[in-house]
Amino acid sequence: MLTQDILNALKGYFKDLSNDVTLVLQTGQHSKRDELKNMLSQISDLSDKIELVERDTQSKLRSPVTFAIEAKGKFTGIQFSGVPGGHEFNSFILAILQAGGSKLKLDESIQSMVKKVKKKLDFQVYISLSCHACPDVVQAMNQFALLNDNIGAEMIDGAVYPDLVEQNKIQGVPTVFLNGEVFASGKVEIAGILEKLGKVAPEILEASNDEPSLPMQDVTVIGGGPAGVAAAIYAARKGLKVTVIADRFGGQVKDTMGIENLISVPSTTGPQLTGSLMKHLNEYEVTLKEHIRVEKIEKGDIKTLHLSSGETLQTRTLIVATGANWRKLNVPGEDENIGNGVAYCPHCDGPFYKGKDVAVIGGGNSGVEAALDLAGIVKSVTVYEFLPQLKADKVLVDQMAKRSNISVVTNAATKQILAENGKVNAIEYIDRTSDEVKQQALHGIFVQIGLVPNSKVVEGIVDLTKYGEIIINEKGLTSEEGIFACGDVTTVPYKQIVVAMGEGSKAALAAFDYLLMNPLEVDEQQSAEQAA
User: Fold this and answer.
1) What pLDDT, in 10s, does the model give residues 255-308?
2) 157 pairs with which residues across the strands?
3) 8, 63, 198, 277: which has the fewest Cβ within 10 Å?
4) Nearest in space to 43 (alpha carbons), one of 66, 64, 69
């Protein structure tokens, strides 16, 4: 049952509904149907614009715990199979609001792309209610459905449909199926989904090429994590024209559950901090282009950016805050089994391994934290560390020692990941003290060996280290005039949220100084305006 505080808040949100919304619940019997019906009843009682009906849809809806959303008496293409609680509650409420007439969150250029899809596309997004990465995918697919009658979107809670999970060999979420075939699995970003969608429906890319160029900016920030948001806010406070381009707002922070070292904030979570970053950014006149990637950069006094939406953007300065991504083992069996036993997010995929034996590769803070998270769910966790000793903080190691179902193997070099019948069943590693090759039977492997900088977009544009980090000076300036960088993608030591925020602020101030010292000549400005 929803609390009165939640119901009061929702009642306020629903006051702005302009369309009639119908929640259509499939008739029948199921152990979780009463729970779902009670939730839907509570929601429908909050507004005369929302109605709950029970209907035999003649198998159009999956089961008695499946409901669809209609707007103005017409099916929207949106379905939820399971009780949309946990992280998916927001997806459910947003679907009602957007079907009811609220503005969609997707960038206008993305909406234009999705509207051009001509073929029938039915998406199913398998989720777990504990997955904090899943709602982004569900919410994007729901908006796709609202934009185009050819697109259907169904959220499927794997815990409610274990037979489907087994049948489709799903071991990680989100997993997206398109017309009955795997479309994307594991950690997937909306920009990546759009890229894949372009291969299935190439007409969306042809349409996007007609998009007009955007007005020239003083500062363009690539990246929407703590460094990028800090840079954008500091630049906007100087009265500059600022655009943020982010394929995933929040970046790696969004995947972090426990944050206790952000000074003045004793405790928060990644999703909460991401929400705070968005709220703060919205206080300023900053253009945000989310779920869009920069495909190419043309350098010069005025930089030209080519975006994945087909748009181009000219900017006087550029701040690269693209952060880092999970580092892979790069061993046989890893890529082939992502989503089928190989995972990178214990919070998202841990529930799929309840009562099973798993391994965590990496003995740093992220690895030990992952082991501690998993220990309460799985049967056993084995932590594999390449070095003779764990690298994690002592407080974490001490906590791990108290867990009877966690063991540690040091001096272990992963050789390969083994699978049988499409599922991981063992890890093979080298004991570095004896050079002996060993195997351990298990059901899942969580890779936690650090991060790799997301610097590919500036390869050949600015100088990089052999590790791919952008080389910067004390002001965040790169080797190219007018291009600055900050955060985890750079050579700055200590990849921490608070450090990234400071570096982003510094880069924005340095960009402002650069603009003061390099005013745009009249003929350059006219040329830029004509090009735009």
Assistant:
1) 776 788 899 999 998 889 999 999 999 999 999 999 999 999 999 999 999 999
2) 127
3) 8
4) 69
* CA angle in degrees (0–180, nearest 5) for 216-247-304: 25
Q: Indicate the helix (H) or strand (E) that contains 326.
A: strand 324-326
Element (H, E) at 246: strand 242-246
Cα–Cα distance measured from residue 180 to residue 183, given in angstroms and rounded to the nearest whole number: 9
- Can you name the residues that pair with 77 across neighbouring β-strands? none
Give the separation between CA 449 and CA 512, rounded to whole angstroms.
Answer: 37
Q: Which of 251, 199, 246 is nearest to 222 (CA)?
A: 246
What pLDDT is attached to residue 351?
83
Residue burial 422-458, b: 16+ Cβ < 10 Å; e: rest? eebbbbbbbeeeeeeeeeeebbbbbbbbeebbbbebb
CB 19 within 8 A of CB 71: yes
| Per-residue pLDDT, 339 | 74
**pLDDT computed for residue 343 by the predictor:** 87
Q: Which of 54-63, 302-311, 346-355 is predicted least confidently?
A: 346-355
3-state secondary structure of 55: strand
Strand 303-307, strand 444-447: pairing: unpaired
What six digits make up the tokens of 223? Answer: 């990246």
Instruction: State how far the alpha carbon of 267 is from the alpha carbons of 195, 272, 345, 373, 389, in Å.
Output: 36, 10, 20, 17, 29
How many Å apart are CA 423 and CA 162, to the nearest integer? Answer: 16
Rounded to whole angstroms, the Cα distance separating 52 from 65 reads 14
Report, as an integer, the average pLDDT of 5-9.
96
- Please, what's the b/e burial string for 229-260 (b: 16 or more CB within 10 A of its CB; e: otherwise)? bbbbbbbbebebbbbbbbbbbbbbbbbbbebe
- Residues 362, 450: contact at Cβ < 8 Å? yes
Task: Quote the longest CA-to-CA distance of the chain.
Answer: 73
Rounded distance, CA 100 to CA 71, Å?
7
Whether residue 418 is predicted with pLDDT greater than 90 in this model: the reply is yes
- CA pseudo-torsion sign 194, 136, 324, 317: positive
**Token pair for residue 219?**
């500062």
Q: What are the backbone dihedrals phi and psi of residue 19, each rounded to the nearest 5 degrees, phi first?
A: -105, 150
Residue 528's nearest CA partner among 300, 271, 223 is: 300
Q: What pTM does this model have?
A: 0.78
Q: What residues contact residue 137 under an 8 Å CB cut-off, 6+ apart?
A: 125, 127, 174, 176, 188, 190, 193
Which DSSP helix (H) or strand (E) runs through 122?
A: strand 121-127
Q: What is the CA radius of gyration of the chain?
A: 24
**Cβ neighbour number for residue 266 with a 10 Å cutoff:** 9
pLDDT at residue 528 in the model: 57
- Tell me the HSE value of 230 on the side-chain side, using a 13 A CA sphere: 21
Helices (H), 81-236: 89-99, 108-115, 134-147, 162-167, 190-200, 203-208, 226-236
Q: Which two tokens mark 124?
A: 């199913």
Q: How many CA atoms lie within 13 A of 166 on its CB side?
A: 4
- Cα(98)–Cα(163) distance, integer angstroms: 32
Q: Are 82 and 159 spatial neighbours (Cβ–Cβ below 8 Å)?
A: yes
Q: Is the pLDDT of residue 209 over 70?
A: no
